């Protein structure tokens, strides 16, 4: 699964630690999602979408596996 979280986070001037705190996850989790090594759970995906004010489909797109 590909995503644009790194871009969205950078646009806001947030570090991975900042985003992790807002989502109540570890910085390592944010890094793993951004690099495509971990697909978030559906509740976490909704939380991310709400935080950025976008739909899940605008943040996460199917990619090559």
Automatic annotation (TrEMBL):
Q: Which residues form the HTH cro/C1-type domain?
A: 5-59
| Keyword rRNA-binding among UniProt keywords | no
Question: Disulfide bond among the record's keywords?
Answer: no
Checking InterPro entries in the record gives: Cro/C1-type_HTH, Lambda_DNA-bd_dom_sf
Task: Offer one Pfam family short name for this entry.
Answer: HTH_3
Q: What's in the keyword line of the UniProt record?
A: DNA-binding
Q: What is this protein called?
A: Helix-turn-helix transcriptional regulator
What organism is listed for this UniProt entry? Dyella mobilis
Which lineage? Bacteria, Pseudomonadati, Pseudomonadota, Gammaproteobacteria, Lysobacterales
């Amino acid at each position: 699964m590909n995503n644009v979280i790194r871009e969205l986070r950078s646009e806001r001037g947030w570090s991975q630690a900042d985003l992790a705190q807002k989502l109540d996850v570890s910085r390592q989790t944010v890094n793993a999602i951004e690099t495509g090594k971990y697909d978030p759970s559906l509740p976490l995906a909704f939380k991310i979408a709400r935080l950025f004010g976008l739909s899940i489909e605008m943040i996460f797109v199917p990619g090559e596996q």
